[in-house]
Amino acid sequence: MHHWVQADSSDFSGTLPQPRSGHTAVNVGKSKVVIFGGLVDKRFLSDITVFDSDNNLWFNPECTGNGPDGLVGPTPRAFHVAVAIDCNMFIFGGRCGGKRLGDFWMLDTDIWQWSELTSFGDLPSPRDFASASSIGNRKIVMYGGWDGKKWLTDVYILDTMSLEWTELSVAGSLPPPRCGHTATMVEKRLLVFGGRGGGGPIMGDLWALKGLIEEENETPGWTQLKLPGQQPSPRCGHSMTSGGHNLLLFGGHGTGGWLSRYDVYHNDCTVLDRVSVQWKRLPTSNDPPPARAYHSMTCIGSRYLLFGGFDGKSTFGELWWLVQADDPIAKRSSASPSNDISESKDPRVTSEGTQKGESPFSELQRRVGISIAPSSELHVEEELDDKELLDLSSRSTKGISQKEQDECIQEVRNHWKNSSPGSIPLRELGHLLRDYRRLIIRHDLGFDGSGSFFTADGPCRQQTYRFFHIKLASQLRMADIPNLLTEYKQLFST
User: Fold this and answer.
1) Which residues lie closer than 8 Å to 443 by C-beta, 6 or more apart?
2) At what angle do helices 480-490 and 402-417 cross, to 10 degrees?
3) Gene3D superfamilies given for it (predicted)?
């Protein structure tokens, strides 16, 4: 079991990185994570922020170099690639404004010096949203991207000693061109997952490329892998982080509902287990960070560190830990705020089954197994006040009696109870989710219609509601909708 814990001031010292998305964060050596570039409020960045994990210190190194326009290093950019080889971080491409970049840089992290590299050979075209990974401690492989006109499916290998690029000639069938994917070296293979492809569809396929290790003398070729287990939904802008024998996939965005332009951002964790060679959903004991894409996730020892990202509206700047249950940080995720549970030394249980002095928030959490932050709003709007719910009825609701309004609400609920997941229009998902939350609170606590809560009669039934914490339909994944509808229907049968 893993725990999500938002980092706080006790975890670090120094100057934390500012919010951003489309940046890179790479592990350099055994104790450094180097963050470069990104985008915030339409402003492209070129700063370097470093986390020293040995000293739990964030700092901005004073870099030297001879960059363009009086800069010491690369021009501001986002959606570039960054790969570390020994103490050096290599940067290629990206975007600044509407311009795709094709320049090539190296940062020596021993002396914090930038150098623009003059490479030769088969030079890759300018691009953004490509992905790259190291091959051993000398070479870099880069795949795909977007050059402003077309999606790419080419493969380039860079020798960091000779600075020679080689376009790999691959026999057989190729993956569809794409950008916004991940490309990760696992032993002798490059694994590519997801991305957005030609024409705009978002993909959830997994491909393996062989023939990257000269000593193996293999003919380069792609193989599409169809692994067992809980495969992640199609997405782009996600992260794939190597840790132990697992590859951890987090976040990204895809399309949801029944309209191809409806973006859904994800915050789920899926593991590709390299030992059993299957997908697994990573169990976590508490609510994950807000859904996002174009973030970074790095592995530091047994911990993962999440930073930044974008959810279609906001750019994130907070830091999150994903840790194992025995990690000291994990204790913070289970600590109960003093104002959430009564501090009475002699708690009594009333005849209705509620601990004396216990708030409705705590009661709901205790009985149905959901986590509610003390700042969460547990307000329930009466159906008759929910005008948008009434408007979903097929009949006119203007000037009708309360009895007729009740009949309209029942008509909408019957429609959802008799619907299949694929038949519910996208515009109704938010109303369905709001009614689902309303019915849970009424079902497990009771609600007297005046805005106050009371404990429901009858034996306490332990029921877990997986979507109660979700307030916006845009946070739902496609795979969640059948389960949400099932739980909604069950609320009428118990």
Assistant:
1) 456, 491, 494
2) 130
3) Kelch-type beta propeller (2.120.10.80)
- DSSP 8-state secondary structure symbol assigned to residue 340: T
What local confidence, expressed as pLDDT, does residue 42 receive?
92
For 123: left if phi > 0, alpha if psi spans -120 to 50, otherwise beta; the answer is beta
User: How far apart, in whole angstroms, are the C-alpha atoms of residue 29 and residue 135?
Assistant: 16
CB 204 within 8 A of CB 153: no
Q: Which whole number is the average pLDDT over 278-294?
A: 93
Mean pLDDT, the chain, integer: 83
Helices and strands, counts by H and E, the chain: 6, 31
- pLDDT tens, 174-211? 999 999 999 999 989 999 999 998 766 799 999 999 99
Q: What is the mean pLDDT of residues 312-316?
A: 93
The pLDDT of 365-391, averaged and rounded, is 54
Tokens of residue 350, six digits? 């009333």
Counting Cβ atoms within 10 Å, is residue 115 exposed (0-12), middle (13-18) or buried (19+)? Answer: middle
Could you please state the CATH topology (level 3) that the domain comprising 2-334 is classified under: Neuraminidase (2.120.10)
Buried residues in 276-290 as b, exposed as e (16+ CB within 10 A): eeebbebeeeeebbe
Rounded to an integer, what distance in angstroms lies between the CA atom of residue 299 and that of residue 45?
24
> 133 — alpha (psi -120 to 50), left (phi > 0) or beta?
beta
Q: Are 441 and 364 in contact (CB under 8 A)?
A: yes
Residue 14 in tokens: 């120094």
The dihedral formed by the CA atoms of 370, 371, 377 and 380, expressed in degrees to the nearest 10: 0
What proportions of the chain, in percent to the nearest 5, are helix, strand and coil? 15, 35, 50
pLDDT at 405: 83
The residue written with tokens 């470093």 in the block is: 50
Q: Which pLDDT score, from 0 to 100, does residue 13 have?
A: 92
pLDDT tens digits, one per residue of 130-169 = 999 999 999 999 999 999 999 999 999 999 999 999 999 9
Show me where the domains of the chain are located: 2-334, 360-490
Task: Specify the residue for token string 């970049």.
Answer: 101
CA distances from 274 to 1, 203, 242, 365 (A): 18, 22, 10, 37
